[in-house]
Amino acid sequence: MKYTYFPGCSQETTAFNYDRSARAVMKALDHELVDLPDWNCCGATGADVMSDLLSFALPARNLAKAQALGDQIVTICSACYLNLFRVNSHLAGDATLQENLNKVLGEVNLHYEGDVRVRHLLELLVTDIGVKAIAQRASRRLGGIRVAPYYGCLVVRPYSEFDGPDLPVSMDRVLTALGATVVPYAMKTRCCGGVLMTTRKEIGVKLVGDLLAPIRDVDCVVTVCPLCQLNLEAYQREAARVVGAPVSVPVLYFTQLIGLAFGLPEGELKLTANLVGTDRLMKRLQQASGWV
What we know:
The chain has 15 helices and 8 strands. It is α/β, with parallel strands linked by helices. α3 (52-67) crosses α5 and α6 (121-129) packs across α7. The model has no long low-confidence stretch (mean pLDDT 94).
């Protein structure tokens, strides 16, 4: 099956390894992510500061274009998911917003009714394909590795459409089915600081340190958000001051770990693009699960 796919800006740049691994996993499951033509930035976390209407218009343009192609759109970025979903949520009860928004969209010959289903790839994998089918596709077990699942604060809040807002388990279920040991991690939905790393770095580093401090004896952290992945991986040296000890733990996208279980080549999953090396993780998998 083909799904209309909204890549988002991060997946074209710092998180291209997320994009490539997501496409590879979907292909391995006999599905395809097809890029939304002529997509634009969703507004990320800054558009609403400039203009409330702009913060709706940017993602709505993408939804209007997706509307012409079908009834749903898939993304892998938590911020993109939030902004796209937010449009639908607000339009459902605000006729004035819908009128104003469609006036803006009308300037580029678009119109949006508010009925395109917005989906995060994690939800799609669990709901449409199913945990059992994912496990059956795996050619290698993730046995012997301990992983800390980190969802971040945007994918299940404020719109807890497919998982619990405080204790999500969808990613845990997938990784457990693939053989990994998912360790209890109470910080799994705490904020990583987001763009504070560019405005109030000392606060951002403190938040990352708080997230990394409880993680002990794990082989990797696994996440669904490109900004979370970047913050948790790129600032480990600075965060070590908060933790009070050196920190060096790989932070993988959930699609990369699924891809490894599927037996996909490391090159397809772009593991070398991760900032913290995965050599120890791969060695651990080879020793514990007999990978070759």
